[in-house]
Amino acid sequence: MRSPAVTETTHRTHRRSRRSTPNPLHATLLAGTVPLFLGALLSDIAYYRSYQIQWSNFSSWLIAGGLVFCGLALLFALVNLIRAEHKAGRPALYFLLLLATWVLGFVNSLEHAKDAWAAMPNGLILSLIVTLLACVATGIGLTNLRSRGAK
């Protein structure tokens, strides 16, 4: 039979590790932002090289989808940040990266709302930045968010 101290410590550690990793819905939403923003970047590159307006339309829709996924993942990240024992560190960095991704993605969507050629090259540059931010935020978000002292 286990002592009460061991049971309580195990229970706290299990609860802490469960809160530090994203749940499956959060992980799906987070991972969904990368292909949507990457698709927008690739569509912008295709438009920049071919001048076919439909590529700009594809990019606008992909950015809109990326914003939906990123916004929902941002809500999960905010809840995780509020529930975190240590507000600084990786949970805060993850939240701020997702917030920057969403804000720059929104600015990118406004840029793509312009006339097709007027969105270039700013839309292409913003798509590149947003895609890189989404990749970094996803990398941090899908790793274990525990601090070193909570092992």
UniProtKB/TrEMBL annotation:
UniProt keywords, alphabetically: Membrane, Transmembrane, Transmembrane helix
Residues annotated as transmembrane: 25-48, 60-81, 93-110, 122-145
UniProt domain DUF2231: residue ranges: 23-141
Residues covered by region (Disordered): 1-23
Protein name: Membrane protein
Record organism: Pseudomonas saudiphocaensis
